[in-house]
Amino acid sequence: KPTKPMLIGSAVHALAFRTQKVMAYDGVRRGKEWLAFREANPDSIILSMGEHVSAAAMAHALEASCEAVDVLAGTAEETIFFDWYGRKCRATPDVRTSVGVTELKTSSSSDPAKFCWQSAKMAYHAQCRMQQIACGLDIDSPAHIVVVESAAPYPVTVFRLTEEALLAGEKRLCQWMERLKMCEESKQWPGYVQSIVPLDVPGDVELDFGDSEGGE
Question: Whole-prediction pTM value?
Fold first, then answer.
């Protein structure tokens, strides 16, 4: 089931690319009226009034950013089927052109000092490199990530991935694929480790045990 941030993110994509209708429902999501509204709008993203206001404001912020508008122009959300590493693969870039790809992200922060950590954690560099491969683009072709914050005043930041980041993304992709093929061939799907491992705590970590009667 989509979380609230995921639902709003889907709505922002739909509003930005005009790929799906976004509706606001002012009421409780249960009962006959809700069921009737949902059945009357089967292909729409349905938000609460507050969620709709936020999604619309985020989409408006994107439209107001000249840098975002430039890199969000192109073919939107079209799935590509391709062969890679001897496997059938598919990718759906948010935006692609003949020269580059762009991903649109919603986040609690578009601060460059913070988003780089989220990008690494979520492996966005690997995602963008996979989309380049799907489009037949070289690693030095433009790959952008547009980030709009989910709270007012909805700042927008446009990032261009470095060639070093995309190279690291391709290495990650190869590692994943090699691991997958090895597991398939051996019919073994192990966990992270197969033995007991030590657990230590860095010396500069401040430990907070909570209340004196605290729980776990």
Answer: 0.85
